[in-house]
Amino acid sequence: MTVPPQGPATMYVPAFSMKQRITMMANKYELIATNPDGTDGPLLAFAQQKRMAFKEEVTFYADDAKSRVVFSFKARKRLDLGSGYDVFDAAGQPIGWFKKEFGKSLLRSSWQLAAAGIEADGTERNPTIAIVRRIWEFVPFVGEIPLPFIFHFDFTDRASGQPVLSVERKVSVRDRYRVSVQDSRLDFRVAAAMTVALDALQSR
Predict the structure, then answer these.
(1) pLDDT tens-digit series, residues 53-90
(2) What is the DSSP string of 2-70?
C-alpha cells in the first residue's frame, strides 16, 4: 500500500492532546495543540464518530460548529474492518492509512500506520494491562462499562526503529490523551486520526 507524496499543506504538530465528549448518538473529540510550557493551546480539529454507523467513518472539522471539513478517515470495506482505514485531506485525497493487526492483537493491541515516507508499527506499551483489559471486556455486563485502565501506545519506524508517535491515556473524568509526535515527517492529520482510532476502534 502506498501513500501519495506530501504536499505543501502538510502540517507537523510535535505535541497535542485529545479530549473526548460522550453523547447519546456520537463520540466527540477535541484535538488541542500543546504549548511549549505544557498548557493547552488552540483547538486544531473537532471530530465525531456516529455510534450507530455500520461503516466506520470519522470526520474532522475546523471547530465544533462543523462548518468546514479539514480531514477524515474511513474503513476500506463495509464487512472487513481488518482491511484498514484510509486518511483523507479536506479535498478527499489520501494522505495516510492505518490498520489493526488482529492476530497480534489477541493478547496485545498492535497497529500498522503509514504516511508519506513512513511505515510504522504500534504496540500497547504494557502487556499486563493489555491482558487485564481483555478479561474485563469479556466479563458479561462489566465489559459494557468504560475501561478504567490507563493504556499507552508507542509507534516506531519499521526501517530505523526510531520513535514516531506516542499516545498516552491520562486519568480524568472524560478520556484525555497526550500525544507526542517524535518524527517530523508524520502529518498531524494522520497522527490525529490514529489517536482517535485508538479510542473509538479499540474494542473492534
Answers:
(1) 656 789 999 999 999 999 999 998 866 656 899 999 99
(2) --PPP-TT----SEEEEEEEE-SSEEEEEEEEE-TTSSEEEEEEEEEEETT-SS-EEEEESSTT--SEE
